[in-house]
Amino acid sequence: MGDDTLDAGDLGGWLDGMQRALGGQVDADVPCGDCTACCTASQFVHVGPDETDTLAHIPRELLFPAPLLPRGQMLLGYDERGHCPMLGEHGCSIYEHRPRTCRTYDCRVFAATAVEPDDDLISERVRRWRFRVDAADDAVRATASRAAAARLTQLDDDLDDDLDDAIVPSSPTQLAVLAIELHEHFLGRDPVTGDLCEASPTDDVLLAEVERWSPVS
User: Fold this and answer.
1) What is the pTM of this model?
2) Whose CA is closest to 122, among 182, 211, 37?
3) Residue 125 domain-assigned?
4) Would 124 be classed as within a structural domain?
């Protein structure tokens, strides 16, 4: 591993951990070091109405209703520099009370799915990540994650006109996260050997999964 690269960890273990984080079971465990790219990338941070502890630690004037989402769903904006207003000189000023969005954010989703972030600082970080793919199953899961992202990217073109109101990812972050969540639909078992192999879900299956997904980032 070169001097400029970063160890992203074992891919299979990371995928399992990321899915638990997205399911709300654990916080994402990201080796950020001194990187604050996601905090300085002009990103809106979603805060749900059930996050009462977080809401109590963010000044009310910094929050505004999230467009197109139900009442009570809020967004935390950014300052004139594109920085999260809760980012202080020594890092996040409300780290122990940070939003769920921040607890589950992991820029390695871009490296795993080959989705390009829309921020240069995050892109620079993502290009440095290198996953370890030691097991055959992990290599197949890596391919499935990328295949899910590529298929979702084309979803609008693949759908018929009467399905145009499907919930399609509208940002690179949403796309990469959804690809991780759905990558198992791109996996199957070889009927002869039982080995994990690539699969291709039908449009109906994929559409049903996408429609169940509610984007909040």
Assistant:
1) 0.87
2) 37
3) no
4) no
Q: Is the pLDDT of residue 29 over 80?
A: yes
Considering the domain architecture, whether residues 77 and 139 belong to the same structural domain is answered as no
What is the span of the domain harbouring residue 58? 31-105
Instruction: Quote the CA–CA distance of 94 and 84 in Å, as a whole number.
Output: 11
Tell me if 189 sits within 8 A of 130, measured CB to CB. Answer: no
Per-residue CA distances from 116 to 20, 35, 172, 173 (Å): 23, 18, 7, 9
CA gap 20, 26 in Å, rounded: 6
Q: Note whether 60 and 92 are same-domain residues.
A: yes
pLDDT in the model for residue 87: 96
Task: Quote the number of domains for the chain.
Answer: 2
Instruction: Please list, in sequence order, all residues whose beta carbon lies within 8 angstroms of the beta carbon of residue 75, skipping any fewer than 6 positions away.
Output: 44, 45, 46, 47, 63, 64, 65, 66
Q: Do residue 59 and residue 155 come from a single domain? A: no
